[in-house]
Design brief:
It is a single chain. The chain is α/β, with parallel strands linked by helices. It has a domain of 134 residues: P-loop containing nucleotide triphosphate hydrolases (Rossmann fold). Helices cover 45% and strands 8% of the residues. The protein has a five-stranded parallel β-sheet, sandwiched between helices.
Length: 196
């Protein structure tokens, strides 16, 4: 039997890059390329095209995979799913800061608008709804879903135990930690809406 596929189904800016790096250290071939190659397949609902990408890799992360967990569960019955989470205020702050007013069709597909600035409430609601729906979907299948929050604990133990892997000798990778500077517009929004 082939090794189970691993699907990283947390939204962007929840430590997905850290998870991808950790999986690579553990020896998995991870697909991380998103927007340019994947968006046309998603918008056309080209399931065969998406499955062909999955079939060439051990794990996939980033968009659009979080919203396709039900389909992937059907396509790959023995798969493992990992939900990365983050404090919601820090998450929306990071999304606004990182993506700003740049529009993408992928974010349009996910959130209903391709630009986070000016749509913070809708983005935040989608983030909360997604995490809630994932938890409900896997509620009776705890062996198939691992939920992690690197802000609380960035260690090898939960991931390696979930995947049945030995803990590597090297330190756990924590990618993109504090890598971005908050833009003026984002600062004004958060002071008004969420406080400092």
């Amino acid at each position: 039997m082939a090794a189970p596929k691993i699907f990283c189904i947390g939204f962007q800016k929840t430590g997905t890059t850290t998870l991808a790096k950790a999986l690579e250290v553990l020896g998995y071939k991870v697909f991380s390329d998103t927007i340019s190659n994947i968006t046309p397949l998603v918008l056309k609902e080209d399931w065969n095209g998406l499955k062909s990408i999955i079939d060439k890799h051990d794990a996939v992360q980033d968009n659009p995979w979080p919203l396709l967990y039900r389909e992937m569960d059907e396509w790959y019955p023995n798969a493992k799913f990992i939900l990365t989470d983050r404090d919601e205020k820090k998450w929306i702050k990071s999304v606004v800061n990182h993506f700003g007013t740049k529009h993408t069709d992928m974010r349009q597909w996910i959130y209903g608008d391709g630009t986070p600035v000016g749509n913070e409430e809708a983005y935040l609601q989608k983030f909360k709804d997604h995490n809630k729906e994932v938890r409900q979907y896997f509620a009776k299948r705890p062996n198939d879903l691992l939920e992690v929050c690197w802000q609380k604990e960035a260690t090898w133990e939960p991931l390696c135990e979930f995947l049945g892997r030995e803990i590597p000798a090297e330190p756990f990778p924590h990618e993109n930690k504090g890598a971005y500077t908050v833009k003026d517009k984002a600062v004004k929004f958060f002071k008004k809406k969420w406080g400092k």
